[in-house]
Design a protein that fits this description.
2 domains, six-stranded mixed sheet, 48% helix, alpha/beta, 476 residues, Nitrilase/N-carbamoyl-D-aminoacid amidohydrolase
Length: 476
């Protein structure tokens, strides 16, 4: 009979609460401020604390400690949910926390079943699998508060090759080495460290061998000049005047961008006429009717002749909001400067959306965004973490225009070269961005789905063995 191994010095209550406090404190220290980028490295303390916290006497206790850690991380960081949903924010925080609890439970089950040395090899895989699933693959998917977003120096080229989920894999691998160093045989420990050291250059070689460029500024194209105007629910009649001001301030701008939900209808004549008179392109968010009672949240591209030359609907409408129907397809705009992908607000948070645009050859991403002023500064700061990470992952510049701060122009290396203030109503910003020959997908786009599948297999094995043990127990 395959009986679970006895616990090898699992944590008591006192140490459990200390590791819980460390994990939560390091998470908030890494995530709270954008003014001190080096603090992002403290996310390692979060990874290390969770790994140690999972070593509980029982799987149930590990789940509850992981759930507590997740809730204590999510509630303060996502307090904006209270303003949006009221008391219903509490179950949403619990939904996020559930996945941290699940990670701790699977790790604890692996340790109790197979021992520290064998379980240690699985921990980075389990973390990556759980984080990818909760961020990308189910109805309440939500990628914010990901370990990869906390790491601010994403512009460092070797990390670009790994992607945001790959960064989490590396941090948890390092945490495992430190936490279980005494459980490894010396040779095995050397193999693990060497494998981690080789992972980054191997990822880089993988992309180079695919004929993809690492640096976005190695481009043969002339830069495209863009200007954005930040406005929240403006009346359509004032839009031409706002665009006139932006044109006077940026006479060389070729593409003007307005936020998501600038319009509650398709593009009106007065905006088409503005584009025709000034021979400029305009990207503007509006509603494209779908039947009598619904619509697609859409970004319209108005050409220099006043016609709609391209439009793209939102792929991932925000859950629990009236946000239109999901897009039926994704395509890139074949602009005069190259292929431009358009994703709307929440879409940028999902690699499964933006990956498709990069696969289709997008050389620039334009992102009309709705960030309501009432949601608070911290919500805007959390959202502003996404664009630099995404730009650095793909080597593709991003021009993101929000309804109220923080709008951003980001180079393909992940550097923010222009941004607006918060709330910044009516604020104008601009940038010249060079389009690379093409973008690339980081290695974790292949690693993360694999880890998700392996995590599912490990979980199924643990459940089966537990069921088998219960059936084998003698009945009195």
């Amino acid at each position: 009979m395959n009986v679970p191994k006895p616990a090898a010095n699992p944590l008591g209550w006192g140490k459990s609460f200390l590791w819980l406090a460390l994990a939560v404190a390091c998470f908030h220290a890494a995530y709270t401020s954008l003014k001190f980028p080096a603090a992002g490295l403290l996310i390692f303390g979060y990874a290390f604390g969770l790994v140690r916290l999972a070593d509980q006497p029982t799987v149930r206790r590990a789940f509850y400690f992981g759930l507590a850690a997740g809730f204590l991380c999510a509630a303060p960081q996502l307090f904006c949910f209270w303003g949006m949903f009221g008391p219903a924010a509490i179950p949403l925080w619990i939904v996020f926390a559930f996945w941290i609890g699940l990670f701790a439970a699977i790790v604890c089950g692996s340790i109790r079943r197979w021992g520290n040395a064998k379980a240690a090899w699985l921990i980075p895989i389990i973390w990556t699998g759980v984080e990818y699933f909760r961020s990308e693959l189910y109805y309440f998917k939500f990628s914010w508060l990901n370990v990869g977003y906390a790491y601010p120096n994403f512009q460092i080229a070797p990390l670009v090759t790994l992607g945001m989920y790959g960064v989490g894999f590396i941090f948890f691998s390092a945490a495992v080495i430190l936490a279980f160093r005494n459980s490894f045989r010396p040779l095995h420990l050397k193999i693990v460290i060497l494998a981690l050291l080789l992972l980054i250059p191997l990822a880089w070689f993988f992309q180079l061998s695919s004929g993809m460029k690492i640096y976005a500024n190695r481009a043969n194209h002339e830069p495209v000049s863009l200007a954005g105007v930040q406005m929240e629910f403006p009346t359509p009649s004032i839009l031409p005047e706002a665009l006139d001001k932006a044109l006077i301030k940026n006479p060389d701008a070729q593409i003007f961008v307005l936020s998501e939900y600038t319009l509650d209808s398709p593009v009106p004549y007065l905006l088409k006429n503005w584009c025709r008179e000034h021979a400029r392109y305009l990207v503007v968010g509006g509603e494209d009717p779908a039947g009598t009672n619904n619509y697609y949240d859409t970004a319209f591209v108005v050409g220099t002749n006043g016609d709609i030359v391209f439009k793209q609907a939102k792929s991932v409408p925000v859950q629990c909001f009236k946000d239109g129907l999901p897009a039926t397809n994704q395509a890139v705009w074949n602009s005069p400067w190259g292929k431009i992908g358009i994703c709307i607000c929440y879409d940028l948070s999902y690699t499964r959306v933006t990956d498709e645009l990069v696969r289709q050859g997008a050389q620039l991403l334009i992102v009309p965004t709705m960030d309501v002023d009432d949601w608070g500064r911290h919500q805007h700061e959390l959202h502003s973490r996404v664009a630099p990470v995404r730009a650095a992952e793909y080597g593709v510049p991003i021009f993101r225009v929000a309804s109220s701060g923080i709008s951003q122009a980001v180079t393909g290396g992940g550097y923010v070269v222009a941004k607006t203030s918060m709330p910044g109503n009516g604020e104008i910003f601009s940038a010249q961005l060079r389009l690379p020959q093409r973008g690339f997908l980081p290695l974790d786009r292949y690693l993360a789905p694999l880890c998700t599948g392996m995590t599912g297999i490990v979980t199924a094995i643990l459940l089966f063995l537990t069921w088998k043990d219960k059936r084998a127990k003698p009945k009195y």
